[in-house]
Structures are given as C-alpha cells and as structure tokens.
Amino acid sequence: MARKIAMALLVGSCLPLGGCLEDVDVVTGSIDRTSANHTSAALPHTEATWRAYAEEWGKRYDENPGEKAASINYARALRALTRNEQAVAVMQSAAIKTPKDMEVLGAYGKALADNGQLQQAADVLSRSYAPEHPDWSAMSAQGAVADRLGNHAAAQEYYREALKIAPGEPSILNNLGLSYLLDKQLKQAEDTLRQAAAQESADPRIRANLALCLSLEGKFAEAQKTSEYDLPPAAAAGDTAAIRQIIVQPNAWRQIELSESNRRNRLRDEPTLPQDQARPPG
C-alpha cells in the first residue's frame, strides 16, 4: 500500500472514478460527490458492477440518444470506467438536445474535466448553475478545475460559495483543504481537512488527505494515527514512512502538484436519477 501512495504522488497516476477501483480509497485527490438536485441511491463499487451498470444505461441511451436521465447515468458509468472520451460524446449529445438544462451541463462539464479539457469544462460548468438554481456539486467541480489550472485563489472561492449551499459537506471541505495544501497554506489545509474528516459521511480518502497534510507539516506520529483509522497499524506505518521519504526529495512539492492536477477522485455514492425520471419518455 505504501508503494501505491508513492506511485500516486511521484508519477501522478490517473485515477478518475474508475481506475484501479480497489485502490481508490488510498490515493489522494479531490472529491466530487453528487449533484444537489439528485436523490440518493446506491451505486456500484466494483469494476464488474460498474460494467453492468454501463451496459444497462447504455441500452437505454441507445433507445433514446440525448435523453437526460439515460445520458447522465450512462456517462457516469463511462467515467467510472475511465472511458472519458465516450462520456464526453454522450453528454455532448445531451447538451445539444437540451442546451439550457443545468443538470445536463453540470454532467457535461465534469466529463470534460475528466477528459482533460479544462478550459472548456470551466466554461460549461459556469453555465450549469445560477443564483436561482444553485448546485454545490457543480461549484465544487468548477473549483477542482480551477485548482488543476493552478488558480487556487479562484478555486477556494468556488468551494466557499459551495459551502454556503451545503454547509459541512465533506467532499467540498476536502477539496478546499487540498486547494490550501497545493497553495502551501498548510495550517488552513489541516484545519479544513480535520473538519471534513470529522463529518459522519467522511470518505477514507479524506482521512488519507489529512494524513498527507500532517506529514507535510512534519507531524508524522499524528499522520500515522490518522491512517490507522482505516488501515492496520503496520500498513499505516508503511504509508507514513513512504510519504516521509517522498517529501524529503527536493522536487516533492512539484510532484504533489502534478499528481493532483492530473487526477480527480470521486466518492462512489453519486446517486442515480429518481426512477420516475429514469425512463425515456413515451
């Protein structure tokens, strides 16, 4: 596991929602969880179940290309399987069909971001919410894009605005904490990631990010204790030792920045659309 963390930091392995599904909880990265307009429902957690999910929604999409629910759910599955170009094509069709639907634009913008089309993603996401139709998930995604473009001040403002809509939402707090970390504001990063980790619904990756932040501050014993919440003591010690070895390298910060800029991880509880919206009309 220590080697996995080392790989994540040193070579910036690309882990959007789907890649190396079994390792996603130990790799640092920003988190995009759900749209504020969706209703919670369980989603797959393994590559096999994501493939089945993609097949199911792909059939519905083929029956009615561009239909909202089928497009969003099919694209979500494609993103989970790192078939990002295909996800972009699916959501582009939906956006052409309903160019003013903000939920469609939000999903389209996230697909573009996953595919590395950051400037286009920023433009689309900016049109996916409005004061009368707020969407904290889209705002948080826009913040993640800004972070990847190196504009941490703008990213932090997006996250703060998202928190006004969803106070205490751990995925937003996580992203804000990581933005502070990338901006080398380690005290703010620690405070924010602690707040995120304290939430009942906090994902293990949030605690992994907190452990990384603590390690960067030289608080290695506390970092190991934080890791032990999710890992056996020996594994937590190995992870802490690996991070400690990495951060003493002269180019450590640059490697961390490259790693985060090339990767966005998402929680796996992004829900499907309500079933009364999930069938093609007619």
What are the SSEs and their pairings?
Elements: H1 2-11, E1 30-31, H2 47-63, H3 68-80, H4 84-97, H5 102-114, H6 118-126, H7 136-148, H8 152-165, H9 170-182, H10 186-197, H11 204-216, H12 220-227, H13 233-247, H14 252-261, E2 264-265
Helix pairs in contact: 1-13, 1-14, 2-3, 3-4, 3-5, 4-5, 5-6, 5-7, 6-7, 7-8, 7-9, 8-9, 9-10, 10-11, 11-12, 11-13, 12-13
Can you describe this structure in just a few lines?
With about 280 residues, this protein is mainly alpha-helical. It folds into 2 domains: about 1-30 and about 150-265, Serine Threonine Protein Phosphatase 5, Tetratricopeptide repeat, CATH 1.25.40; about 35-135, Tetratricopeptide repeat domain (Serine Threonine Protein Phosphatase 5, Tetratricopeptide repeat). It is built from 14 helices and 2 strands, in the order αβαααααααααααααβ.
**Which secondary-structure class do the elements indicate?**
mainly alpha
Q: Characterize the overall form.
A: globular
Estimated share of beta-strand residues: under 5%
- Return the average pLDDT rounded to an integer: 80
Q: Would you identify the regions where 5 or more consecutive residues have pLDDT less than 50?
A: 1-29, 34-40, 264-282
CATH class of the largest domain: Mainly Alpha
What is the CA-atom radius of gyration, in angstroms?
18 Å
Number of domains: 2
**How many β-strand stretches?**
2
Strand order in space, largest sheet: 1-2
Order of helices and strands: HEHHHHHHHHHHHHHE
Corresponding CATH architecture of the largest domain? Alpha Horseshoe
Q: Helical amount among residues, as a percent range?
A: 55-70%
Largest sheet: 2 strands, parallel
